[in-house]
Write a structure and sequence with these properties.
Layout: E1 2-5, E2 9-12, H1 18-34, H2 37-54, E3 56-57, E4 68-70, H3 77-83
Parallel strand pairs: 1-4
Antiparallel strand pairs: 1-2, 2-3
Helix pairs in contact: 1-2
Length: 92
């Protein structure tokens, strides 16, 4: 799976990491619903760090279609809310 972190670039991520990412995504969604800004910030950072750690960066000139687009680390709660689908940021 190709994942884009807005403002940073793309990484290739093995589907085996989706369970961990879905847990973080569910936590992020719950914090957004509660309006927990500090929890949201912490979990968004954790989600992006997990993708960076598990993924292999693609070259900047690579034009692979992204299967998943994640917000930048400094995205606001409202910006992330606009990106959400029924499943959160990560499908499944």
């Amino acid at each position: 799976m190709i994942v884009r972190i807005m403002g940073e670039g793309q990484v290739r991520l093995d589907d085996g990491h989706l369970t961990e990412l879905n847990k973080l995504d569910a936590e992020l969604l719950a914090e957004m619903e509660r309006g927990d800004e500090s929890g949201f910030r912490r979990t968004l950072g954790g989600l992006l760090d997990a993708v960076r750690r598990a993924g292999t960066p693609l070259p900047d000139d690579s034009l692979e279609p992204s299967e998943l687009i994640l917000p930048s680390p400094d995205a606001t709660l409202e910006e992330v809310r606009e990106m959400l689908s029924d499943d959160g940021l990560i499908p499944g």
